Amino acid sequence: NPPNLQTGESSSLRPASCRSKGGAPGFKVAILGAAGGIGQPLALLMKMNPLVSVLHLYDVVNAPGVTADISHMNTGAVVRGFLGQPQLENALTGMDLVIIPAGVPRKPGMTRDDLFNINAGIVRTLCEGIAKCCPNAIVNVISNPVNSTVPIAAEVFKKAGTYNPRRLLGVTTLDVVRANTFVAEVMGIDPREVNVPVVGGHAGVTILPLLSQVKPSCSFTSEEISYLTDRIQNGGTEVVEAKAGAGSATLSMAYAASKFADACLRGLRGDADVVECSFVASQVTELPFFATKVRLGRSGAEEIFPLGPLNAFERGGLEKAKKELAESIQKGVSFITK
Ligand code: NAD
Ligand code: LMR
Predict the structure, then answer these.
(1) Which segments does the entry list as coiled coil (predicted)?
(2) What is the pTM of this model?
């Protein structure tokens, strides 16, 4: 009996629930854009996550192949594939967490905002499906430009009457991952020991690393601050240029998305003190959305932490970040409300 793509089982087998050991708690996770450069390694990593009991892989192309491949891994999650718009609702029904890496990536010379025209519509359609089929799911938005796609998602959910700001999270983890790596190189220590808060948004000057708050604490020279800020803000462009037309960060992004999704699932499970940076609805500044550290819990982003003390360099960076962010947020809002 060949396996059924959607159930992940052949009809003569017992249902997956009979095979799982001792009814271990697990969450249902969907990846939308699962056959893409980020989607495939992210699917691999989520299939390895013991908190995931069911993994739905949705894409408009190649979902069956990726699903067949991933489903052979002897880890706990049951994998099901969904291909194309007619299967979106089945992909989303019952999900606890939906991760969205669907959309086109940059090529050299492009800004993330240049992706708006294509990706805005993709995110709108997917979020309409979420509002209809799993309105209580936590949503992780990866598709760029994140500074606009998160406001788009919020407006779609508002229109549908399902918006809960705690459950909508823009994924900025890659900025933190990069910052930790680059700062560790300068400090000459293990990157796993470093924690750099990165606030603001996810594009150019809106990416604001708070080097004055690095843990373990360290005082940097002004040359080091300038080098690190520039490298962290342009980390995405560094990869886009190195890939020379073949896309943007996919592997480090899948790692970052899996790290963030795992934090969301640990929060949903009720673990204490799960804290990550994320681009969320916020009152930390006068802007409606802003990335800061958030505490993740059973209902999503349960606590949004303030910026903490900033030095003069960071205060200057914050003003620049807010100016660009305000425009990107408004562009996303208008896409739905205009
Ligand atoms: P990719 O082109 O390799 O993959 C995108 C996938 O989305 C493809 O498989 C495509 O078929 C699918 N897709 C397109 N339209 C769809 C739809 N309507 N429904 C479902 N799936 C659809 O691109 P990638 O490298 O995986 O990047 C994806 C997105 O993530 C880009 O917008 C990129 O800019 C963004 N990104 C964000 C971050 C971040 O830090 N937030 C980091 C890296 C990339
Ligand atoms: C990144 O930071 O790597 C992503 O936002 C992709 C990009 O276009 O840079």
Answers:
(1) none
(2) 0.96
According to the model, what pLDDT value does residue 65 have? 98
- Closest-CA residue, ligand 2 atom 3, reads 236
Encoded tokens for 260: 């963030």
Q: Give me the percent of the chain exceeding a pLDDT of 70.
A: 93
User: In the structure, which protein residues have their CB atom closer than 6 angstroms to any atom of ligand 2?
Assistant: 105-106, 112, 144, 174, 202, 235-236, 239-240, 248-249
Using the structure block, give the residue that is written with the tokens 């793509």.
5
Q: Name the residue at shortest CA distance from atom 9 of ligand 2.
A: 236
The model's pLDDT over 152-181, given as tens digits with 9 standing for 90+, comes to 999 999 999 999 999 999 999 999 999 999
Ligand 1 site, residue 60, Cβ cutoff 6 A: yes
SS3 94: coil
Q: Which residues make up each annotated binding site?
A: 33-39, 59, 106, 112, 119, 142-144, 178, 253
Ligand 2 pocket mutation, candidates 107, 110, 112, criterion most atoms within 8 A of CB = 112
Beta strand segments in the chain, E: 27-32, 52-59, 78-83, 97-100, 138-141, 168-170, 198-200, 207-209, 274-281, 289-297, 300-304
d(CA 206, CA 318): 8
Q: State the pairing for strand pair 168-170/138-141.
A: parallel
- Please pick, among 56, 167, 202, 231, the residue that the annotation labels catalytic: 202
Task: Kindly report which listed range (7-16, 216-225, 253-262, 291-300) carries the lowest average pLDDT score.
Answer: 7-16
202 is catalytic: yes
Two tokens at 46? 């989520």
Cα dist. 325→10, 122, 144, 168 in Å? 49, 21, 14, 17
Which residue blocks in 134-250 are alpha helix, DSSP H? 146-160, 173-187, 222-233, 235-243
Whole-angstrom Cα distance, residue 228 to residue 321? 17
